[in-house]
Amino acid sequence: SSTMSLSEAEVQSARGAWEKIYVDAEDNGTTVLVRMFTDHPDTKSYFTHFKGMDSAEEMKQSDQVRGHGKKVFSAINDMVQHLDNSEAFLGIVNPLGKKHATQLKIDPKNFRVICDIILQLMEEKFGGDCKASFEKVTNEICTHLNNVYKEAGW
């Protein structure tokens, strides 16, 4: 049984949209994080080694920011590959959500922030259709992550 609300056509167009931005996973992942840290400075507090960095330029050059940007994009990529298999999808989302809820204690609203920045970047680089076809995926990801948080007693 599928917990996903995406049709096969929607899955295909979402994958096409994602592929465009995933080609440059490290650069685009870095851009997304730097925007998050710049527009939502409170998010920097989760990353002790980013705290002293104030300029976007400095953050962009940081190996740690770049490494984490790539990690975020790899995790989303794994989810995108399993949009048509809810068991496999949840097999990625559940441990990721649990780790962020219990170990890292990251406020779940930050998942929405990251997803919105990804959508913004997609629109800037590839237009509104690209953004529109990926929007449902970000909603799925955030919904499922929020469910994991609820189960973890957040």
TrEMBL record:
GO terms for cellular component: cytoplasm. InterPro entries: Globin, Globin-like_sf, Globin/Proto, Globin_lamprey/hagfish. Its EC number is 1.15.1.1. It catalyses: Fe(III)-heme b-[protein] + nitric oxide + H2O = Fe(II)-heme b-[protein] + nitrite + 2 H(+); H2O2 + AH2 = A + 2 H2O; Fe(II)-heme b-[protein] + nitric oxide + O2 = Fe(III)-heme b-[protein] + nitrate; 2 superoxide + 2 H(+) = H2O2 + O2. Keywords: Heme, Iron, Metal-binding, Oxygen transport, Transport. The keyword Heme applies. Pfam families: Globin (PF00042). Residues 5-150 form the Globin domain. It is an enzyme of class 1 (oxidoreductase). GO terms for molecular function: carbon monoxide binding; heme binding; iron ion binding; oxygen binding; oxygen carrier activity; superoxide dismutase activity. Involved in oxygen transport from the lung to the various peripheral tissues. Belongs to the globin family. This is superoxide dismutase.
